Amino acid sequence: MTSPQWLDSWSADDGAARVRTLFAEVFADGEPDGVWSAPGRVNLIGEHTDYNAGLALPVALPHRTYVALRSRADDVVRLASAQAPGETWQTRLADVAPGETQGWGAYVAGVAWALREAGHEIGGFDAVVDSCVPFGAGLSSSAALECAVAVALDAVHGLRLAADDAGRASLVTACVRAENEIAGAPTGGMDQAASLRCSAGHALLLDCRPGLSALESADRVPFDLTAAGLTLLVVDTRAEHALVDGQYAQRRAACERAAEILGVGSLREVAPDELDVALEKLAGSPGGDVLQRRVRHVVTEIARTSEFAELVRAGRITAVGPLMNASHTSLRDDYEVSARELDLVVEAALGAGALGARMTGGGFGGSAIALVRADDVDAVTTAVQAAFDDAGLVAPGFLLAPPSDPAA
Ligand code: ADP
Ligand code: MG
């Protein structure tokens, strides 16, 4: 059997040293103003609910994206990334606009653009990036990048938004605009909220209804895995996932169409006990069977997320497994966003004793999670690796995910 590949997180010192060294290599003339970093996230439950004004329950990963940044007197942005070796990315902030900005630098320059749009005075900058967040694995390397840049620009321009949760919520808005409007990826707001607003030892219960205050939109739920004798295992399947392709947008459009037919502002307004009536209403419309399944996923997933958070609050973490499994089944069969590799992780992990397992993130590849007794981590890891070997699949990557610190 192939031995399992562990994707370790870096210490803060190691991450900072890496970007300082890279900064010195790329920009031979001086030091950065500082180093900032932001975590990737993994969602415990509440998938494809954020854009339906629903609930999600992410935790911040110990894996982070590091940025060394120095502000400039003009409006030029120059960037380099260890994940895009040998290439520098350059623009003028005045040229950044929806549809005009290509490449990975759009995630960075987009944040500066969005902060300017929000009325802040943001100038140009030189920055380098390095990251131990797996790329394109459904663990939000894109949000980690945006949020690291957001706290960096916040600091060098003295905006003081990162100083409190309400300010962080406005940085979330800027990062979401950067990703949606400049990078062109139509994602909801969960990833950026997780990266900026999570806290160590907690899960973040996010209520994505528009117009809520910062206080109303997020609640930190103590999530002490160690005390419960549990480990959150993340498996990066390394199956290609591309959110910028049409699938994600199609799911969003289906939800909007269903809400319109049902006469509600969002699917959040459909209560679980009104689901049957709603499904009946959808039956007659074109593509009604597909809309029914999409709506059933969203409504039941929001209910599961709420139940999961209640169990955790009541100190019953070990009881959440069935909710995770039901979430996976719903995403696989009703929302149709799973993939063979994700199903395989879930099956193998449960077979080896995991309490619960599910795909996480947008789907079509990316990562799956398993909630595992600390003593069973080796057995579950070995079982997943063996299942991938038997299926002739590329070796997955394994991460441990204790709930970690937000962007700083
Ligand atoms: P995910 O967020 O799940 O990792 P996405 O497709 O949303 O996947 O985002 C991945 C994209 O974000 C990359 O293709 C790249 O454009 C950008 N990105 C993320 N991290 C970095 C990095 N460290 N350096 C350069 N680009 C990055
Ligand atoms: Mg992303």
UniProtKB/TrEMBL annotation:
InterPro entries: Galactokinase, Galactokinase_CS, GalKase_N, GHMP_kinase_C_dom, GHMP_kinase_C_sf, GHMP_kinase_N_dom, GHMP_knse_ATP-bd_CS, Mevalonate/galactokinase. GO terms for molecular function: galactokinase activity. It holds the Pfam family GalKase_gal_bdg. Its EC number is 2.7.1.6. Residues 22-70 form the Galactokinase N-terminal domain. Gene3D superfamilies: 3.30.230.10, GHMP kinase, C-terminal domain (3.30.70.890). PROSITE patterns: GALACTOKINASE, GHMP_KINASES_ATP. The keyword Transcription regulation does not apply. Residues 107-196 form the GHMP kinase N-terminal domain. Keywords: ATP-binding, Carbohydrate metabolism, Galactose metabolism, Kinase, Nucleotide-binding, Transferase. The keyword NADP does not apply. Residues 309-389 form the GHMP kinase C-terminal domain. It comes from the Bacteria. Belongs to the GHMP kinase family. GalK subfamily. This is Galactokinase. It comes from Isoptericola halotolerans. The lineage of its organism: Bacteria, Bacillati, Actinomycetota, Actinomycetes, Micrococcales.
